Amino acid sequence: MFRWIDTLHKHHTGIFSWRVVPLLNPDGFFLPVPSRTNANGVDLNRNLPTLNWDTYALQYWKEKTGSTPRKYPGPAAASEPESQWMVDQIRRFKPDVIVSVHAPYNLVDFDAVSRLDAPRRLGILEGKKLGTFPGSLGRYAGEQHNIPVITIELPHSSIMPSDSEIRRIWIDLVA
Questions:
Q1: Residue 62 to residues 58, 65, 96: CA-CA distances in angstroms?
Q2: What's the rounded mean pLDDT across residues 117-143?
Q3: Which entry of 80, 82, 143, 153 is annotated as an active-site residue?
Q4: What pLDDT digit, counting tens, does each position of 27-52 carry?
Q5: Distances from the Cα of 64 to the Cαs of 58, 59, 127, 134, in angstroms?
Q6: CA distance 70 to 103
Q7: Nearest 5°: CA angle at 117, between 173 and 52?
Q8: Mean residue pLDDT across the chain
């Protein structure tokens, strides 16, 4: 993300307005063994206030994940300060598209009301549908608010792609 910020700083054309959040979950990221959950043990990508969250989030967590702690959606929709902040940023900035960077699935996913504009690939990353889940960014922004969400799933969370791979992903993304 910091390389992309540097690229934006050097080559911003003014065609797009960007708001970059380099890290939404510092609690989990800076642990000795990084975790997808925050300090409260909540998976922030299951905590956004999607429609029927109260009905489906905990049920999905129990039935589909076997109550795995790393995918715990939290006690209530947007119960976490990070989720509340993200919802506020989306509401204020009104993005045309959201790009989210994750790891380690080595693909590009696209969530929106229509998949007609889904990228087939970004650089080395091939387009594949992962699906959305109660409380996920794809369901919240992509499906519920019709803000396309491009999720870049890098091959590794701790190994950066090469500069040429990052450049190819960036060029395809901007195109």
A1: 6, 6, 34
A2: 95
A3: 153
A4: 998 999 889 999 999 999 999 999 99
A5: 10, 8, 24, 11
A6: 15
A7: 105
A8: 93
**Where do we find the tokens 């045309």?**
96
- pLDDT, tens only, 50-84: 999 999 999 999 999 999 999 999 999 999 999 99
Element (H, E) at 52: none
What is the gyration radius of the CA atoms in the chain, in angstroms?
16
- The encoded tokens of residue 39 equal 């300090």
Would residue 153 show up in a list of annotated catalytic residues for this protein?
yes
Tokens 């029927």, residue located: 52
> 153: which strand partners?
102, 107
Global confidence as pTM: 0.92
Parallel, antiparallel, or unpaired for β 149-153 and 98-102?
parallel
Amino acid at 175: A
